[in-house]
Amino acid sequence: MDAEVNRRTGSVEVLAGLLALVLLVRGPLDDLLGTPIARTWTTVFVSIVLQAVPFLVFGVTLSAAIAVFVPREFFAKALPKHPALAVPAAAATGMVLPGCECGSVPVAGALVRKGVTPAAALAFLLAAPALNPVVLTATAIAFPDQPSMVFARAVAGLAASVVMGWLWLCLGRTEWIKLPEHSHGDTRWRAFAGAAGHDLVHAGGFLVIGAMAAATLNVLIPGRWLQALADNPVLGILALSLLAVLLSICSEADAFVAASLTQFSLTARLAFLVVGPMIDLKLFAMQAGTFGKQFAVRFAPATFVVALACATVTGTVLW
């Protein structure tokens, strides 16, 4: 009886409470949603979410399948023995293995546990969510009139991943990485369902937040402010890079948000697409939890600078 009374509030109770709240404020809510600004905001928000959800579902499903069913020893055996050569090989592996950043962090930790050189595991960690086929396909659909954006994202993302791996070889220290004890799950199918469901809910929440922020930027902020920021090439690139860190959008959905920020240059939007999958708020938290705080406080700022530089150079050359 006590356990029943003191049990935690579940999702059903939360949903029921939200529905009751909506019914109570239905009149004012109808008036608010009837305004032109609210209609425009809703249109932008819904369009971003509807375009991104199929890729998000597909990506987290494949990510969970790879994490659960592919033997981790496979990656260690497939990589070259020399660390300097293992880094680009691991980054290239990330390009062909679909998955989001939510799955790449624990997989990278597992690779280190299995004896893969940390530099190669970190290159995989950065490349997999930024360059996998699902992400590049979503980018092509989000930018139908700019096919060069797919190529630019692949080049800049691969370059940033390899550079960060080589930097770790030169400057990294093994004592910075503190891996927690690895716990084994239940059956494989239960682990698969749990991983896919967790990643879908987790990444979907960030997608909604990102879509809301993008809709707000497009509707509520005066156009002249955004345009003034976008007209300055340097400020525009820095602004969208920082925005990518703050929004923490899943890499399988960020292209649709970037495509909606039409005030900014292609190079600025490329920086958004390159920086976001490599370092954002949720990734920093996951990296700190997987590899330790000493690692995260060093790796995250360096990744931001390298990803920003690679995106800027790539965009400047192409456009």
From TrEMBL:
<keyword id="KW-0812">Transmembrane</keyword>
<feature type="transmembrane region" description="Helical">
    <location>
        <begin position="233"/>
        <end position="249"/>
    </location>
</feature>
<keyword id="KW-0472">Membrane</keyword>
<feature type="transmembrane region" description="Helical">
    <location>
        <begin position="150"/>
        <end position="169"/>
    </location>
</feature>
<dbReference type="Pfam" id="PF03773">
    <property type="entry name" value="ArsP_1"/>
</dbReference>
<keyword id="KW-1003">Cell membrane</keyword>
<feature type="transmembrane region" description="Helical">
    <location>
        <begin position="119"/>
        <end position="143"/>
    </location>
</feature>
<keyword id="KW-1133">Transmembrane helix</keyword>
<feature type="transmembrane region" description="Helical">
    <location>
        <begin position="41"/>
        <end position="70"/>
    </location>
</feature>
<comment type="similarity">
    <text>Belongs to the UPF0718 family.</text>
</comment>
<feature type="transmembrane region" description="Helical">
    <location>
        <begin position="12"/>
        <end position="29"/>
    </location>
</feature>
<dbReference type="GO" id="GO:0005886">
    <property type="term" value="C:plasma membrane"/>
</dbReference>
<feature type="transmembrane region" description="Helical">
    <location>
        <begin position="295"/>
        <end position="318"/>
    </location>
</feature>
<dbReference type="InterPro" id="IPR052923">
    <property type="entry name" value="UPF0718"/>
</dbReference>
<dbReference type="InterPro" id="IPR005524">
    <property type="entry name" value="DUF318"/>
</dbReference>
<protein>
    <submittedName>
        <fullName>Uncharacterized membrane protein YraQ (UPF0718 family)</fullName>
    </submittedName>
</protein>
<feature type="transmembrane region" description="Helical">
    <location>
        <begin position="200"/>
        <end position="221"/>
    </location>
</feature>
